[in-house]
Amino acid sequence: MLDVKQLADEFEFEVKAGENGLTKEITEYTLKRPSAELLGYLTYLMPQRIQIYGQTELGLLQELDIRGMQINLGQVLVSEVPCAIFTRGLQVPNEVLELANERNIPVLSTTRSTTQLFYLLIRYLTNKLAPSTLIHAVLVDIYGVGVLITGESGIGKSETALELIKNGHLLVADDAVEVRRIDEDSIRGSAPENIRHLLEVRGLGIMDVTQLFGTGAVRDEKDIQLIVNLEEWQDGKMYDRLGIDPPPTREILGISVPEMTIPVRPGRNLANIIEVAVMKNRLRTYKFNNLPGLLRD
Question: Which positions are catalytic?
């Protein structure tokens, strides 16, 4: 849950009025500049959105007489509005402050421009309010591709991640991956705060990757573009030996992600196999896979 106080603290907003409403929950990542609404056009008000007031909105308010301003503001600053933010350090009209205190609507102020604030807020709110889930897995950035390594506990996910880090790739999360759907086509993974940059290897314990390999060996988040599932080698099971067909997919938060299954048995270098799997998937993505043609020849 995200409330207005958390938002104000994150962006260091100054609270001008409506302190009693700082516990209001923010549920929408989209923002509203209520220019038309201040002129009486209320069809698309959408009161659950944060309202942003820049020079245009303040200019419209100043065009109204006091009575007109009170009426129009009363229709726009309704109690459902989580907060109103004034940009560029603009002076907030007294009528806004009075109404905000009456209806417990936090009025916040920033010196940032309206355009800059829109960019920063949408990016922040999209991440915070996106649908999310927690997956038992390891997430590694391999050649710029976010690879989610899954498998039963003890199969060797963390040991494989350690070898990949030694090969120059980046750890995002070990053991638990917080996955968020950031738009209609992408999911992004990160580590819970309490285990960020930590890697647990049985027999060695918990290690801080930044201390062992430096800060260049980790990153905080990465879009997930490929899933590699590790499973115990099963005699008699038919594994893909040609690699002609596209891999199956697994759905996470409504997004389909290509998934490759790699059987595990002694003597197999899983890190090298995963590196090649990533390169092969990239070739297939860019339609450079000529293996079917070679087989036909």
Answer: 136, 157, 175, 241
